[in-house]
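Chain X:
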Amino acid sequence: MAGQSAATLRRPRADAVRNRERVLESAKAVFSAGGPDASLEAVARRAGVGIGTLYRHFPTREALFEAVYRREVQQLSELAEALKTEADPVEALRRWLRSNVEFVATKKGMSAALALAVHGTSELTVFSFDRLTKAVGALLDRAVAAGLIRSDISPEDLLRALVGMCYLHDQPGWQNSVLRLLDVFVDGLCVQTGGGGATTLDSRHGSAAASEKPRRQRSRKSQE
């Protein structure tokens, strides 16, 4: 009887976890699409739960925003960790950056639908920037160490360039445009090869590139 009672008590908690995950996944899809239908009611319908269930998990719009935001950042961090084993460091970096376009789309949609500041709270901004910088930094270092990506670029540079591309586009289909630009951007970061063999972009920049890498490494250490 005691065992049955314990199992019975566990079921609501498991259901609650599943409902919460459905709401978060639905919120990501609804807000990414944007438009006038990107409402909390639309999120609840897509998740297959009542609006009351949504509010039990997320009592305010801001609470839902922050939960989706943190979930996306966590997933991007986990993706970066998984991509460290990819055979091609450049493609690993490219895949991670492309996944960020979807994250920015979700964030833009939430900001519009929920009438929130684009960057949310300062604490949330610091949390996300720190996690994402470390994630992309590990992939960038791997590509640089392999001699495939120029070394005079920092993780912060990559994130700022990506965000800039995303927020300069607001028309329908903007994500496809950004993904094309992102491919051009990554290709431009690749070490160039000439007829006489591999020549890095560092060699053309001379001492400026050589001094940039230690500066970037020191900057990253200061954040840890």
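Chain Y:
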Amino acid sequence: MTRMRLMAGVEVPATAVVDRAIDHARHHCEPYLFNHVMRSWLFAARLAQLRERQHDAEVLAVATLLHDVTLNESFAGPRRFEVEAADIARDFARSAGFEERRAQLVWDAVALNSTPSIGLHKEAEVALCTAGIGLDVIGFDYDRLPRETVAGIVSVFPRLAMKRRMSHCFCHIAAHYPGTTYDNFVRDYGERHVPGYAAPSVVDLVDGTPFEE
């Protein structure tokens, strides 16, 4: 039986690997981003409880806590930031003793966290990770949680101007590494906020396929 504890009013696992993941996130994320991953994890855990969704609580914790370790102005690709973070999170999971299936679930959850049209339909750990992050970033299922639950989590881990600061990171990626953005939501930030932004188009890729009709 996994030992549990209350954090900001939400019951979460109290294990050494979760503590290590929290410390890793705190070390590698700016304060506003650390608070974001903590809120996302707590939202995901509470949604799991409300939905009575069976899941691996350590996998969910590691994935959600480490999903944004590459979201900063030091990001240098070469792949989209979620995939770079997924590799880091999977390496962390393996070093913590996760067997390969659990480590791969961590990878999938991180890599798909900003692609809810896929992530929400995968394994419970991936779907819950996507849901918790989506709730914190764009308000997915905001009304599913009691107001006092949301207020309690935000009071312990305040938002610290997250909308503005996260948008700045997305624009930085779009401006400096547009090739990593053509098939994900960062493209939206490039098109709206970054002068001269240009990324590969799927239309051009299909039209340029080296096959005869």
